[in-house]
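the two lines:
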Amino acid sequence: MQAQEPLTILIAEDSAADRLLLSTIVRRQGHEVLTAANGAEALEVFRRQPPHLVLMDAMMPVMDGFEAARQIKALAGETLVPIIFLTSLTESEALARCLEAGGDDFLAKPYNQVILAAKIKAMDRLRRLQATVLQQRDLIAKHHDYLLNEQRVAKAVFDKVAHSGCLSAPNIRYLQSPYALFNGDLLLAAYTPAGDMHVLLGDFTGHGLPAAVGAMPLAEVFYGMTAKGYGLAETLREMNAKLKRILPVDMFCCATMLCLSFQRRTVEVWNGGMPDGYLHRIATGERLPLAARHLPLGVLSPQAFDDRTEVQAMAVGDRVFLLSDGVIDTTDADDRLFGVERLQQLFAANREPDNLFAEIEQALHAFRGEPRDDVSMVEISLLEATQVVPSTPVYSDSGQSCPLDWSVSFEFRGATLKRFNPLPYLLQLLQEVHGLRTQGGAIYSVLAELYSNALEHGVLGLDSSLKRDAAGFASYYQQRNARLEALQDGYVRVHLQVKPQGAGGCLVIRVEDSGKGFDVARVMERPLDGVRLSGRGVSLIRQLGHNASWSDEGRSACVEFFWEVKA
Amino acid sequence: MTEIHIDREALSVLREVMEDGYPELLDTFLADSESRLDELKKTVDATALSEVAHSFKGSASNMGAVRLAALCQELESEAKNKSPLDIARLVADISSEFADVRPIYEDERQHALTH
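prediction for all of em together
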């Protein structure tokens, strides 16, 4: 052990002889000595020059040692200034008073040098220990502040990215802790160019910043690809590949992604490793589980990744409810899980759908005894298509290089139709024409409808009347996936023609397919109601575009869009 | 009965510890003791008596005056129970004990200064 460093020691003792003796002993042990003849003097000296340690006589005139000790401890605050009481007190009651007043030890008269040296040493150790503890506490507090600040900055940056979406849309309700990001929870929502809504609820493995870092690239892919008109399959593929590439092996992201189509009144679902979501059909009260059918994002290689989705019909007012595992994994004092059953009991007991979140929250709180900060819930309801007002995108280019007289033709053949979605590319091309930008949503919807009609009814030969009811709807999409998987031949051709016309211009879209065609006259006789599940596509096309017409026995569809240049 | 008045061993430790300051310590103790004796003789209040006796006991024990310390201890603890006459007798005992040991400390001082 290293030699003891010299300390400054205050000796408060009223007896002059004892004071002189003690000062000499302490000085000879290498310390600096301050002296006081009573408690009041001791306080005065302490204020002027705080010592490391105090040797204090208990019985002193003016102010006794007990009171002086109390005041010195108050002055020292968090710093430990040990006080050794000098006393020939023998009664245990008096000794207890010394401790109560803040004394740390006693030294009996007559003084023994060896014991005094040992006690000074022991008290110095204690004093240093306390100083170290305080220093480390302050350091921890500093680190903690630093960490919180980092999280605040990260959250601010992330919020800018996450809130670029449409979480504030009137049909979305969600509940998330403000720092859910640092529990790995992630909620994203955005409109597609066609006015559909993409929603993603994700849950990264881990906690803190490591759980949050993956959120940024995931959000970028989500917003970037949704805005460009990519569907769930392509977006999920890209997100999976990106996370697989950048995240360490033990990190991945459980996620449920939805595409809610207000036009078609459908919800398309992909669930990778999240708890069951629920499609709540208001008319029947049924809650259809949207179960996980896939591994989380970032686990499988791009080749092994499965992007198959399920499509369900929805009615206006139906709701999709998604939740993070924080809800069902909440445990009570005895480590019992809240579980799916309790959640379903809450569903069953719920009378007012708008109160569901509050009821779940309350139940979790009652179950656990305290709130959790990793509970995320979101509920999206299906609105009338006319109630949905997607924000219009902002473009930064001047329009000087805008192409106004051109045409282009594509033929997409069997193997391509299986995997490739040409719509984002076609839309991007059309967005180069300034005059068409304000109608981007309508053009995209029509193009998407024409393309899926050509693919599904034309090339794949699916019967649209299957979609008359909800059960047929599900089997329609199962058949679609199966036939697409087996597809060998066939084609979809897309012709785009842009012509200047007066002060504005005209876009002609023609889509042809290799299918059997349909009875055009009979379909055209139907009213433009757009309510039934089947045949809605044709109504939509006729409402959004101009001069919609079908030729070649339904195998060729043509729609026009016009624009005028405002002065 | 031959009681021990002074712990000679304690004195030699003090001599060793104090070195050149030894005579000053002896002077201080003697002067301090005089004033405490005066206080004891003047004081009537039992609590105050007990406190003075306590302080006197402390320095007496440090200076090796074992019998003086023992007498002070008796006064300290019995001040509240004894009759004024008994107390006066005890204070007189303390005074005479101090008178007895005083020459020893003066000798010590003389001895220290001349060596």
